[in-house]
Amino acid sequence: MQDIPFVVNQNQAIVFGTGVLDQLPQRVAKFGKRVLLCTGRSAKQRGLLDRTMKLLEGFEVVHFDHISPNPKAEEVAQALALMKTMDAPTDVVVAVGGGSIMDFAKAVAASYASQRPVTELFGVDTVDRALPVIAVPTTHGTGSEVTKYAIITHQGKKLAISDTKILPAVALIDPVLTYSMPAEVAVDTSLDALSHLTEAYFSALCNPVTEAFAEKGLAYMAPYVKTLNNLNEEGHYYLTLASMMGGIAINLSGSGLVHAMGYPFTSEFGVPHGRANALIMPALFKFNAEAVPHKYAKLSELLNSEDLSTLLKELNHLYGYDAELKHITVDEAKLQRWAEGVVANQRLMRSAPRKPTVEQVVALYKQVLALE
Ligand SMILES: [Fe+2]
């Protein structure tokens, strides 16, 4: 018997199912009248902005959509300035979009209610208070609708706020909203979800509840891993479930060094987050296997494969991700700087099942980049 105490902190309503977006007005009304609505710019072309605005008729809505794929601290400040133009305080933040939009909304909600610039909120348990957030995901990947994390780029670095106060009050998950995702985005985000399910399972902080979510999420995802660029509606539906479960899994037990190692690929070379993680996974999971071979074997089995890293390499090839590596140019000094950043990332090192040294992280990067 492994008698290790654990806490499950998932204090939110998770509303899942076809058509649940229509519940938005009554969900918003519970928090008040004045709404900050955050969306991506594509919501307009997709008709989603009009649909959401119609649902929010009768509320006082300020709309903000100047949000980069990797949202910036300056953009959070811009949204705060816009909120100040409302006649009275904002009651609730609604985020309709992918992970960036939801992360952004969580950061704004914290910065506004705490009356502190977002740059003071990076770290763990730093938030004084936050406005309630209603998160409506339109992709299946980040699971941000069910996590306490917001990743914001500041001075070229991806930095995290990690605080249960920014866990969205409501995750309104309508799988239909993901059906029209471009194939490339579906692959990138699904592989982010895969990285969450696997990293949380590997996590040193993994508990039986995390395991249950990770195993079930992987079971939903496994039949589709080789056809993520050609999903039918059923595929999108199950990937949306898997993504939510991956989000809960990392919310409970953290992601890990796949994320830490992938961040510079994104911030310095613009590699999409899920793709960066996909490139890192094969080498890092082999490294993890030395410490927790039973978990490696179980994850291989859950994905119906002989060997987890071999499968993940195949996926990188199948989706053309290995071609991305050509654009990533590094020298020894840069690798050293990246590796030092990874080892200094206490939040993600804490959950690593095997804690590497700086030299080992450099060697892992070299394997990923096929430099040795
Ligand atoms: Fe992620």
Commentary on this structure:
- This protein has 15 helices and nine strands.
- It is of the alpha/beta class and 372 residues long.
- The protein folds into two domains: 13-178, Rossmann fold (3-Layer(aba) Sandwich), CATH 3.40.50.1970; 183-368, Up-down Bundle (Dehydroquinate synthase-like, alpha domain).
- The strands form two sheets. The protein has a six-stranded parallel sheet with strand order 1-9-6-4-2-3, sandwiched between helices. The chain has a three-stranded mixed sheet with strand order 5-8-7.
- Helix 6 (183-202) runs antiparallel to helix 7 (208-221).
- It is globular, with a radius of gyration of 20 Å.
- It starts with 12 loop residues before the first strand and ends with a helix.
- The mean pLDDT is 96.
- The chain binds fe (ii) ion.
- Fe (ii) ion is lined by residues 142, 192, 195-196, 255, 259, 273.
Radius of gyration: 20 Å
Number of distinct beta strands: 9
Assign the structural class, choosing from mainly alpha, mainly beta, alpha/beta, alpha+beta, or little secondary structure: alpha/beta
Oligomer: single chain
Roughly what fraction of the amino acids lie in strands?
Answer: 5-15%
Strand order of the largest sheet: 1-9-6-4-2-3
End-to-end span in angstroms? 42 Å
- Overall geometry comes to globular
Residue runs with pLDDT of under 50 for 5 or more positions = none
CATH architecture of the largest domain: Up-down Bundle
The ordered H/E elements are: EHEHHEHEHEEEEEHHHHHHHHHH
State the CATH topology of the largest domain: Dehydroquinate synthase-like, alpha domain
Q: Give a quick account of the main beta sheet: strands, pairing sense, barrel closure.
A: 6 strands, parallel
The total number of structural domains is 2
| CATH superfamily placement of the largest domain | Dehydroquinate synthase-like - alpha domain
The average pLDDT score comes to 96
Give the helix proportion (percent range). 40-55%
Put simply, the count of helices is 15
Q: Under the CATH scheme, which class of the largest domain?
A: Mainly Alpha
Give the names of the bound compounds: fe (ii) ion
